[in-house]
Amino acid sequence: MTSVDLDSSRDFDITIEKTLAGLGLEEIVSIHRETNSYNWFLKKAIEAQTKDERCEPCYDFIFVDGSKNWTIDGLAFFLADKLLREGGWILFDDYGWRYADALAKGKAAGDGVSIRDLSDDQIDEPNVAAIFNLLVAQHPEYGNFKVQDQSWAWAQKVRGQREIKHERKSTLKSRLRRLKPTPRRAP
């Protein structure tokens, strides 16, 4: 497995290294650090996978949990697509997140993007939802789309189902209700 994170996140209380060590998984994950974007890692991965002027896909699953920005993550999708194998899945986090919500909490920047530098409509619109709906869901090589609780957006690299399913998180209580046997009436 491969994980890409920013150099600056080394200073966080919880890091990918500490999390993996705590789970005993540090041996199976290769961690790559970049100065300002996972897109530079993706660029280098495409270069490494290019043979005879063609990129050979190498991943079965790609999880994009990053800037939540149209420009950065829109490019990330097209770069990741080159590295994702047929049948593989891509998952975007923060489908419904908006810069407006960050502003309301007093933040001036979101994952390295200055909110002041964005247009009002980009601040108001969930950028990841726009990426998913306008780039991923319209891409002819993707199908089996699912959006979970306005948070996670899934797509599989296959020609297939074009409908986007929206699901809400089911609670543990509702899951248990489904497992509870229905009482039988006496004959």
Automatic annotation (TrEMBL):
Residues 168-187 are annotated as: Disordered. Residues 171-187 have a biased composition (Basic residues). InterPro entries: SAM-dependent_MTases_sf. It comes from the Bacteria. This is Class I SAM-dependent methyltransferase. It comes from Salinisphaera dokdonensis CL-ES53.
